[in-house]
Design goal:
Blueprint (H helix, E strand, L loop, with lengths): L10 H30 L6 H32 L8 E3 L5 H15 L2 E5 L7 E3 L1 H17 L6 E9 L2 E8 L33 H11 L3 E7 L3 E9 L8
Parallel strand pairs: 2-4
Antiparallel strand pairs: 1-3, 4-5, 5-7, 6-7
Amino acid sequence: MDKTPPPELSLGELKDELIEHLMQELCTPLTNIKTALKLLESPVLKPSQRRRYLGLIGGECDRQNSLINGVSRLIALDRISDRAAIVPIELSQIIPGIVSTYQPLAEEKGVKLGYTVSNNLPPIAFVEGWLRQIAIDLLHNGIKYTPSGGQVFVQATLQNEYVQLEFRDTGIGIPPSEIPKIFNRFYRIRSSADEDNNSAGLGLTIVQNLLLRCGGSISVTSQISVGTKFRVLLPTKRSPPNP
């Protein structure tokens, strides 16, 4: 199944919505944390209960930290939103370094990580900071949802006036019912039982918006227990500004 993301939402609108959502999200988790801390004061608390309450506190803190980081990322991206920042970029000068950065994480998890990016590809017209953010988010997702013994691979190919950057993995896959939702703001993919998901549900939303702002696009295909492919189209020519 193939899913193309919806029309662009400005970074300013996304940031405003995120801040509003953040304020709403902080209320319930803080109540849960306060309740767990109170329960931890019990003198008859069993070790299993203590671990459960501490785990709850840790999970809620991670989720709120992810939301706050999401706000920081959007503010930083908004500061370089001028389309004049679009420059010619050689993928062979960017992707290998990002893959190398994530090699230790992949090895620790037992995941094989590789890439193929030819030096003969034409330069793309993009904002370099945005390209790095897109590659980091998609590569991190691939490693996160791929179990030990699996593979994550990045490949660049020429597609007419675009360069296609494909991120494919042999991970757990995305249920068909969830594929239409994965680019929605604050939507978190339900992960496997042994994979905690404390993300803010913003990574793919940011990716799709950055691509649309520079004339690119993203699509996804996935099969349960087989893997997922994200295909990113990056323009090789400067596109006209969005209205």
